[in-house]
Amino acid sequence: MVIRERYSDQVHSGEILDVLSLNGTPACLLDLRLQTVTLNQQMQGTLQLQESDMSFSQWIRSFGHTGQQRLQQVLHNLLTDGNRESSVQLTDINKYKYQCKMVHLTNGQIAFSLKSIKGLNDGPVPMTLSSNKHKEAPLSLNQSVGYQHHRNMIHMFGTESSPMKNRMMHLVDKFPHGLALINHNWEVTYANPKMEEMTEVPFLQNYFKKLWDIFPIREHYHFFQQYLRSMETQETVEFEGYLKKTNTDVQVTVHPTEMGITVFLQDITEYKNQLKALRASEERFALLANNIKDVFWISQPDFKELHYVSPAFQEMFGISRREAFLDPNSLMEKVHESDRASLRTALDEMAKKESEVEYRLSGPKEESKWIRTKGFPVEYYGNSYVLGIHEDVTEYKEMLELKEKSQQLSTITQMSAGIAHEIKNPLTAIKGFLQIGAANPELRDNYQEIILDEVNRIEAIVQDFMMLSKPKSSIQLEQVDPEQLVSYVLRLLEPEANEKQIYLLFDCDPIQDKFETEPKRLNQILINLVKNAIDAVDLGGEVRVSIQMSSSNLTLSVRDNGPGLTPQELAKIGEPFFTTKEKGTGLGVMVTKKIVSDLNGEISYESQKGAGTTVTVTLPK
């Protein structure tokens, strides 16, 4: 793009010569763009100045301090009010008085002429203007020049008072975005402080310079292209640009006016940086979502609208993402019918708190896929959502099943070996004594009692195993009195305790309510625990049974003052055939744990070597 306008200093040369001649009148010409003054010979002689060209600040010092203030005041009013002429009375540094006339010429130039005033007293000279009278603080030349360009901004307020104009000019100066005026000759006539800050260009020194003299076209070609478009079409143009000098991204609005174009610059660097960071974050998330087997999702709390599902959704559920967005309930149709209720309940909980659920998907040929769904509520800019993840846990479920079967097989193998061992010993004894009795009939009665004890031992082992295999579904609940039940068990075991001179103690708070349980199983629990405690303590020991009932559960506690267990022994309690008794099998503890589990209770052991053992059973009401 080539803009063929060029500025020529000869455009107004005739007008300049007329001003400087003025038929021998002291005169000078102020160039607002360069802030320089050109004096004719008469002006030089009157003010006793050596040079014909000087800066405005040098020339104005030819007058007294009061005169300088008045001159700047009137110059400001001339520029802001749009008048062509104005005048003011001045006194130079030699106390000579003059009537100074100012004429606003074209292209940013002002002509001054001086006329001597005689017969006036030395004293304050009244300031008379050919325009409106104002009482404002004096301004510097730069401020005056700036206000002259503000006039283009507030031309529409030509009939308004000066305070209104001042407020408008103050508003423009404090405008948070860059603002600049460019006339039809592509000259910058005004730029506010924010524009200078964003571009780092001192516009006050570049007023009425061509735009391309301030901003090289090669570096700002895109800007010039849009400016020209707005100038030619007389339409507002908006675009984004980049200022290389200040490393600033800007949103540019170019608005055509009668005087040219008005350019607005908004700094969007931070916004662009945030946008870049957001895009980078989205790319990283997309990289994660596109390469992970789990499914991320975002939904409304009522699950009637999906906001996002990751690409793995289609492979996991066999439903396209588009179908899921259009009909979120399509997922429920894939869920196994028996698991739909639990999934709906879990989804309702996810809208309130973190929750998870596992369910099956119905597949072809009656194949099932296990899915685990986790979700939790979030608040984002005042809106509620549910975020979650779907995981395919089919392999995990299969692994757990295999592990459980492996553990069962290991337990069966271990218990089978234990059964063979425990039953083999009494069978060997029985066989031996029977052979002795067969060979020596007269001795047969002597071994009868031993044989019977060994048979009873085999019977006890078999009964324990039958108890372990008894199904939970066979439980028949009844209302029982816990205090009576414990008293019955203690009376039952009292003869055995008396043989070892062991004290059986019973602590019980007054219990008014009855407890619903299966009496036989609860009896078996107490019998096993108390018998183990009696076996553990030495002669003259103590076994204390306590019972407490709350609004939610029943707590049974059996404590002995026996030798106690080491941490290693305590960790092995409940394993098949682990026992600290000389003739124990360890099956009693297994049976007790099994019965407690069948009654939906919990059992815990506390022990310390040399300080006894406490067993606590908690059963829900």
UniProtKB/TrEMBL annotation:
UniProtKB keywords: ATP-binding, Kinase, Nucleotide-binding, Phosphoprotein, Transferase, Two-component regulatory system
Protein name: histidine kinase
PROSITE patterns attached to this UniProt entry: HIS_KIN, PAS
Location of the Histidine kinase domain: 418-621
The organism's taxonomic lineage, starting at the top: Bacteria, Bacillati, Bacillota, Bacilli, Bacillales
Domain PAS: 281-354
Molecular function terms from GO: ATP binding; phosphorelay sensor kinase activity
EC number of this enzyme: 2.7.13.3
Reactions catalysed: ATP + protein L-histidine = ADP + protein N-phospho-L-histidine
